[in-house]
Design a protein that fits this description.
Radius of gyration: 18 Å
Structural class: alpha+beta
Strand order of the largest sheet: 1-3-4-5-2
Number of strands: 5
CATH architecture: Roll
Number of helices: 4
Low-confidence stretches: none
Helix content: 10-25%
Order of helices and strands: EHHHHEEEE
Strand content: 35-45%
Distance between the termini: 18 Å
Number of domains: 1
Mean pLDDT: 95
Length: 148
C-alpha cells in the first residue's frame, strides 16, 4: 500500500498496457456514443485519415480507469476531480495504450490532518509513443502517520 508520504512530486511511473479490441470498442460506441466516426470506417477515414473507426472518449477514460486499478494500491479515500481532460489523438482498434502517471504536487489536509490531497497528470500513450489522452487527477489519500 502506498500512502500520501510515499508520493513525491516529479516522480513518474509507467503502468500496464491495454490492447484496444475493435468489437469491444464498436459495441461500446453503438450503445453509449453512436457517432458515425465510431461506427463506420469510411466516415472515420474521411474525418481522421486511414485507420478506421475511432474510440469514444468515454471508452478511452474507461481504459484509463482499468489501467489505474492495475497499478500498485494507493491508500485512496476519494477521487476529488479531473481537470484539463484532453483527447490528443484518435484511438483505434489494435492500439496498445499504456498508463503514465506523474505526481505534480501534494498537501496535507487543513481540516483533517490524517489525510492529504495529491495531484497527478495521468496520460495514455499509444504504441508509437503518442499521447492520446491526458488529465489532471486530484485524490484524497490516507496518511501513514498523521503526526508528520
Amino acid at each position: 500500500m502506498r500512502y500520501f508520504e510515499d508520493l513525491q512530486p516529479g516522480d513518474v511511473a509507467l503502468g500496464s498496457s491495454f490492447v484496444v479490441e475493435r468489437d469491444e470498442m464498436v459495441e461500446f460506441a453503438r450503445r453509449w456514443d453512436p457517432q458515425p466516426f465510431h461506427l463506420d470506417d469510411a466516415v472515420a477515414n474521411a474525418m481522421f485519415g486511414e485507420g478506421g473507426v475511432t474510440a469514444p472518449g468515454v471508452f478511452v477514460m474507461a481504459i484509463r480507469t482499468r489501467l489505474l486499478h492495475d497499478t500498485p494500491d494507493l491508500a485512496v479515500i476519494a477521487a476529488l476531480g479531473y481537470d484539463e481532460l484532453r483527447f490528443h489523438a484518435p484511438v483505434r482498434a489494435g492500439d496498445t495504450l499504456q498508463l503514465r502517471q506523474e505526481w505534480l504536487d501534494k498537501r496535507v489536509s487543513e481540516s483533517k490532518p490524517d489525510r492529504g490531497v495529491a495531484r497527478s497528470r495521468l496520460s495514455l500513450v499509444n504504441q508509437d509513443g503518442v499521447e492520446v489522452m491526458s488529465h489532471i487527477d486530484t485524490i484524497l489519500l490516507r496518511r501513514r502517520n498523521s503526526n508528520d
